[in-house]
Amino acid sequence: MSATSRDRPRYATPTRVDVTECRTDRIADRVRLNRVRDSEVHLERRGGRTFLVTTPAE
Q1: Would 48 be classed as within a structural domain?
Q2: Is residue 3 situated within a structural domain?
Q3: pLDDT of the residue at 12
Q4: Whether the Cβ atoms of residue 55 and residue 40 lie closer than 8 Å to each other
Q5: Per the domain annotation, does 9 fall within a domain?
Q6: Considering the domain boundaries, does residue 26 fall inside one?
Q7: Exposure of 35 by Cβ count < 10 A (0-12 exposed, 13-18 middle, 19+ buried)?
């Protein structure tokens, strides 16, 4: 039996990562880390907080 690890996250549902306290020059790095193949990544503002949202392609 072999174990494999994926270099990219895989999500079946939209995910939200709180980036309110993240420095603006680090947001691009967070996008790369949370990007899923063929997904859409955008920033969303809710209740004074900022979230990095990944929406998987269908």
Answers
A1: yes
A2: no
A3: 63
A4: yes
A5: no
A6: yes
A7: middle
* Domain count of the fold of the chain: 1
Q: Which domain holds residue 25?
A: 15-56
Rounded Cα–Cα distance for residues 53 and 31 (Å): 9
Could you tell me which of 48, 41, 40 has the C-alpha nearest to residue 21?
Answer: 48
pTM of the model: 0.63
Q: Calculate the CA 34 to chain-centre distance.
A: 3
pLDDT digit string (tens) for 6-51? Answer: 555 555 677 888 888 988 888 888 888 776 677 788 889 999 999 9
Band of pLDDT at residue 55, cut at 50, 70 and 90:
confident
Cα distance between residue 6 and residue 10, in whole Å: 9
